[in-house]
Design a protein that fits this description.
The chain contains 3 helices and 6 strands. The chain is of the alpha+beta class. It has a single domain, classed as Nuclear Transport Factor 2, Chain: A (Roll), CATH 3.10.450. Strands 2-1-6-5-4-3 form a 6-stranded mixed sheet.
Length: 123
């Protein structure tokens, strides 16, 4: 596994993390302090706002054991990373949702700008 693939795996793990303290620690390690995460509905600036987006997704999709997020494919171009993810039942099966993340990394290796695109909307 490459360094960037490991980074993407850690990124996705944050969205699946049940422990609030581990989630906050992961956010601080992955996103720069002034990072921006944008999905198609809203934009979140800084760790506290990004944490609220992560918690909302966790509560809606992961908490009750319905789904987990997994990495499908990773592409890198200098300081830009694009990867696809699947939202699948924990035991496996067809993806209920598929998305593409595109982010840029700062000099410290943390995310500066993070954009989410939904390729398959959950039913």
């Amino acid at each position: 596994m490459t360094k960037i693939e490991d980074f993407v795996e850690r990124y996705v793990a944050v969205w699946n993390e049940a422990d609030a303290e581990l989630r906050r620690r992961g956010i601080a390690e992955i996103w720069a302090e002034n990072a921006v995460y944008a999905n198609q509905g809203a934009e979140f600036s800084g760790h506290k706002e990004i944490e609220s987006a992560v918690v909302e997704a966790y509560e809606q999709f992961v908490k009750n054991g319905d789904f987990v997020f997994t990495v499908a494919q990773v592409d890198v171009n200098h300081d830009a990373v694009r990867f696809t993810w699947d939202m699948v039942p924990p035991a496996g099966g067809e993806a209920a949702s598929i998305g593409t993340q595109f982010f840029t990394l700062g000099e410290d290796g943390r995310i500066v700008r993070d954009y989410q695109f939904i390729d398959k909307v959950p039913a």
